[in-house]
Amino acid sequence: MENLKSLRLQNRLQQLKDSYELKNLDLQILQKVQQYQIISICCTTEGGFDKKTGAFYTQDRTLNYKIKISFKRTPTSPSEFVLIKAEEAEEDFFNFPNKKAVLNKAG
User: Fold this and answer.
1) What stretches of the chain show up as alpha helix (H) in DSSP?
2) Which residue range(s) make up the domain with 75?
3) Structure pTM?
4) Which of 77-81, 93-97, 100-104 has maximum average pLDDT?
5) How many domains does the chain have?
């Protein structure tokens, strides 16, 4: 049963290649990770995944990873993850103060 799940997830990797516009580095990561046992593949259109922890966050940040792939190098090794499909948030999304804004001293 576990082998069947892994095979389906391996097929999903090919679907990712076909469905998303991926950079060369993303494609290289996909090529390398498919030699391991894939545990899960998570995709999002809103928010993203944290680069250090892999945790999902709902709000956009400066850099948003849209695809997270969890895997094991061997059946007894701890699970690891890789993130691909990095997208930068649009600058106006953060509502930065107008550069012409003037701050008055409190009186």
Assistant:
1) 2-19, 24-33
2) 1-86
3) 0.75
4) 77-81
5) 1
